[in-house]
Amino acid sequence: MIVTKTISETRRIINEAKKKGKKIGLVPTMGALHDGHLSLVRQAKKDCDFVVVSIFVNPTQFGPDEDYKKYPRTLTDDKLLLGRGKVDLLFLPTAEEMYPQRFSTYVTEGNLSQFLCGKSRPGHFRGVCTVVTKLFNIITPGIAYFGQKDYQQVEIVKKMVKDLNFSLKIKTVPIAREENGLAMSSRNKYLNSSERKKALAISQSLSLAKQLIRKGERNCKIIKNKIKNHIRSKKSVKIDYVEVVDAKTLEPKTKLSDRFVIAIAVYLGKTRLIDNIILEA
Ligand code: AMP
Question: 89-91 and 2-4 as β-strands: parallel, antiparallel, unpaired?
Fold first, then answer.
């Protein structure tokens, strides 16, 4: 696996690969890799001839009180996993490389970003759109891979690609879960064993909601309350939001129809976890 740190070196290698007719796949990550990230890599390996993974803990998507400094960094392990996954290129820029002094241009999606995590993390999606735009311009992939775990993120990226006429495809990869149902996340590394047990309430409550809907429940308030009650039954889990939203517009729904997403964000201590499920009425 080739490892690059600069944009110029990365561009040179990508150009060479393109000259050989290779189809480029990109998997953007913030590292502390787990099987969720690797499922994106596996999909990229199936579709493309030259797979690039970026690891960059992007400062512009973290709020001032968030975990940018503390975010888990496990580069030695990450490199091993990516090497085993037969990744062709690991792009590992520094913050200075991506945001040199006097950097002053940002990308903002103005609609889908207002909902869900956009409310509790102001500026987060501006940071995401900006870094993803930069990565698309540096790597120029044919396909970029994003996880359904961050459902709002991938919908915003798709919207940005459409609105700004980027010439690439976005592929969404399903949520990878631990055997007990917990959605894999780099932030799970923050959890102690008691918090890990409590975190199971998130995916359990989504399964509960699914059963309720299968039995015919269509009232979103009732569904959200069931979820909230289940989560609140575990002490010290603080709900940020439980929402039922339209799968495309991300607007909150009152009565179920079409394709919709149940999205949850909670805090376990200082750790913020998210999860979701896509369903059809
Ligand atoms: P992150 O490193 O957390 O920024 O995630 C990088 C990419 O991996 C994003 O597109 C995430 O949605 C995706 N991802 C993270 N966790 C999972 C998971 N459990 N299942 C599928 N994709 C995931």
Answer: parallel
pTM for the structure as a whole: 0.98
Fold of 186-275: Pantoate--beta-alanine Ligase; Chain: A,domain 2 (3.30.1300)
Protein fold of 2-173: Rossmann fold (3.40.50)
Question: Are 29 and 44 spatial neighbours (Cβ–Cβ below 8 Å)?
Answer: no
Q: What is the pLDDT of residues 210-266, one digit of tens each?
A: 999 999 999 999 999 999 999 999 988 999 999 999 999 999 999 999 999 999 999
What is the rounded CA–CA span in Å between residue 249 and residue 254? 14
Ligand 1 centre from 209 Cα, in Å?
Answer: 23
Q: Give per-residue pLDDT as tens, 124-141.
A: 999 999 999 999 999 999
Q: How far is the CA of 36 from the centre of ligand 1 (A)?
A: 6
